[in-house]
Design goal:
mainly beta; 4 helices; five-stranded antiparallel sheet; 486 residues
Length: 486
């Protein structure tokens, strides 16, 4: 990849209409262009507050993570119409949802009638809002298994300052989506809102190394299953061997200001024969987009590579979808992070062990903890892809999250509460560490970011859980807030 050019002008994200949960349901490009001087505003963070969600939240470590703050959860913290919402499991395993007025440190809490079934950190709670009827939707407690679904009364999210908050506002727990079953091997729920105002649900059907990405959609008060859009078949061959089954892990799903849906991903093979002896088989960073709300998928050049719910799916052999090639020997992380800037250009955050530290990482956790580095991958307006190393060791096997501020400056929220940033005016090359909470926050590892709030008021809210004093002793769950440039 060539060195990135210094952009001469960037759209000003402040001019975009804000307020869409999960992305771009109310965004516009009107008035988006700004002057060079405005675009030169660099990144900064200023802590504005902190609050305790739960002094004794459920704590256990599984797959090196916590069930209350897995970064792939995406929708564990969201803001809608002046209120912020958080979801987690309390010490008694109850699925819990809380809200607060933006700017307040006081949360109102309610349980929704479900208790976590097993000590598996994949079994997160994901939340989404359907704008058409003002309902809050929760999907939870699943890992290649059945799942649980709860939705609130209609209108609960529309007038929060005058609407009471209690468990009675939520309906009964279901094992389908109002009668739509989806799959019996469900994992990784993530809600987003389409530019049409429809609530969409992304999920995986199948298992690690043999699964498919799929979409469902809520419209006119009813769910429909749009179907799978990635294939688990085909042959992938490395210098070591071959595999005939896999799944695509998604870094996220984000609508840009022009209504385009962007998705980065990472393949995981079923067979370890493709590795030098590594215990995980992640390889390559892929990119696809959809201009029809997830029905048809195209590669970076604009060629169609798959259609949701059909036999023609995005596959490991699909032309032009790999934007950063990497073999399975470098402990590449799956489901890291992505964002779309105000020009509608896609950005991804990936991390792996660079070749200078070795060409064969056999122990994924130990290798990443010792040597992994994050990388910022992005596409320019001419269609070229660029990659820059974020020059800070991960010191962790876990994930970071990428966010963009009103000026398209990039921020990487790393494990343990560290925030690195780079300016858009430099072409995202001048990375610096703006905040290091390693010694003060006592955070376990991964954090959850409220991506919706950044677009609305320029506040970066981060949910984290403290390290426990024991292996299963409950520990405090916090939200810390930072002001970004607006």
């Amino acid at each position: 990849m060539s060195p990135p050019p210094v952009p001469s002008s960037f759209p000003n994200r402040r001019s975009l209409l804000r307020g869409a949960v999960g992305g771009a349901a109310a965004l516009t490009l009107a008035g988006a262009m700004t002057t060079r001087a405005a675009a030169a505003t660099g990144p900064s963070v200023r802590q504005t507050g902190t609050s305790v969600l739960d002094a004794t939240a459920l704590y256990f470590v599984s797959y090196d993570g916590l069930v209350n703050n897995n970064a792939f959860q995406k929708n564990g913290l969201l803001t809608y119409k002046g209120y912020q919402y958080a979801v987690w499991y309390s010490a008694d395993r109850n699925a819990t949802v809380a809200r607060r007025a933006v700017g307040s440190t006081t949360w109102s809490t309610a349980t929704v009638g479900h208790t976590l079934s097993t000590d598996d950190s994949h079994n997160v709670i994901s939340a989404g809002v359907s704008p058409a009827d003002g309902r809050l939707h929760l999907v939870m407690d699943s890992h290649s298994s059945g799942y649980y679904y709860v939705k609130s009364a209609a209108g609960l999210m529309d007038a929060p300052s005058t609407t009471s908050w209690s468990s009675a506002r939520f309906g009964s727990v279901q094992t389908g989506m109002d009668g739509v079953a989806l799959t019996s091997t469900f994992t990784y729920p993530q809600f987003l809102v389409s530019p049409q105002g429809r609530l969409q649900l992304s999920y995986r059907t199948g298992i690690s190394g043999n699964g498919q990405a799929a979409l469902a959609e809520y419209n006119n008060g009813a769910w429909s299953n749009l179907g799978v859009w990635t294939a688990n078949t085909g042959t992938y061959t490395s210098t070591h061997g071959s595999s005939t089954a896999r799944n695509l892990y998604l870094h996220g799903l984000d609508y840009g200001p022009d209504g385009r849906l962007h998705v980065f991903g990472t393949w995981r093979e079923q067979s370890t024969a493709v590795t030098c002896g590594a215990n995980l088989t992640n390889h390559d960073t892929t990119y696809t987009f959809s201009d029809d709300y997830g029905r048809t998928w195209k590669n970076s050049a604009g060629s169609t590579v798959g259609t949701t719910g059909s036999t023609g799916l995005v596959a490991v052999g699909s032309a032009g979808i790999v934007v950063d090639s990497l073999n399975p020997d470098h402990a590449l992380m799956n489901q890291e992070s992505q964002a779309v800037d105000s020009a509608g250009l896609p950005h991804a955050l990936i991390s792996y062990v660079p070749g200078r530290f070795g060409q064969c990482i056999t122990d994924y956790v130990a290798g990443r903890t010792a040597y992994a580095r994050p990388f910022h991958v992005w596409k320019d307006s001419a269609g070229a892809w660029h990659k820059t190393e974020v020059p800070f060791a991960m010191n962790s096997s876990q994930r970071s999250q990428l966010v963009l501020d009103a000026y398209d400056n990039a921020y990487v929220c790393m494990p343990f509460g560290r925030i690195a940033a780079a300016s858009a005016s430099s072409g995202w090359t001048d990375w610096t560490m703006l905040y290091d909470g390693t010694s003060t926050l006592n955070a376990f590892g991964e954090v959850v970011v409220d991506h919706t709030r950044i677009a609305q008021d320029g506040i970066l809210s981060i949910l984290y859980q403290e390290k426990s004093s024991g292996t299963t002793t409950p520990s405090p769950l916090h939200v810390i807030d930072f002001q970004l440039p607006v």
